[in-house]
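Q: What would this chain look like folded?
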Amino acid sequence: MELGALQYGYVALAAMIVGFTKTSVGGVGILAVLLMALAIPGKASPGVLLPLLIAADVMAVIWYRRACRWDILLKLMPVTALGVLGGAVLLRAAPDTDFERLIGWTILAMLALDLSLNQGLRRHMQGRAMTTVAGVLAGAASMVANAAGPIFGIYLLQAKLAKNAFVGTRSWFFLAMNTVKLPFAIGLGLVTPATLALDAAMLPMILGGAFLGRALLGWINIALFAALIRIAALTAAMRLIFG
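A: My prediction, written as C-alpha cells:
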C-alpha cells in the first residue's frame, strides 16, 4: 500500500494512539479512527486499523488480564455480536465515496451520546434493556468505524470500577469483539495482504504507545483529558464530513 509522507505519518500516529488508549484510560482512541480516515480514503481505513487494534488488545490483556469483570462481559458479548452483524450489513451497503462522511457522522453521534449521558442520563445506563442497547450500538459502531469506545466507556463508568478493573474489562471486551469482526472485515475485502504489511510496519509504534499509556495511567487527569479529546474529535469529525 503506497502512502505519501503525510499519510504515513498519520498512520504512525494513529498506531501510537491505539497502543496508548488500550493501556490507559481510553477515549483518545477515537482520534486514531479519524487520523486513519484522513490518511486512507474510503473503506480501506477500518481494514488497516482493525489488526492494529487487535495487536494492542493482546498487549493490554497481557498486562491487565487479572483485572476483568467477567460478569459484565458475559452480559454484553451476545448482543454486541448482533451489532457487529448489523454493522457489517451497513458497511457492505455504504458507498465507498461517502465513507469518510459516514465515519464523521458516527463519531459525532458517539460524542453527542457521551455528552447527553454526562448531563444526567448516565444513571440509566444499567439493567437488561440498556445492556442490550449499549451492546448493539457498540458492535455496530465498531464494525462500521472502529468507534465503540465512547459507548462502552460510558456503560462501564456506571459500574464505578477501579482504574485497573476498568482497563482490564475494556481490554478483554475489545479483544473479543475485534476478533469477531475480523472474518467480516476479510470477507468485505477490508483486510488484505497489503494492509497487513502496513500493519506489521506499525507494530513498534503500537508498542511504544502501550508502554506510554501504562506509565501515565496513574497520572492522568481524566476530566481534563476527556475534554481535550472531545474537542479534537469534534474538529476532525467536522473535517471528514465537510471536507
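The chain has eleven helices and no strands.
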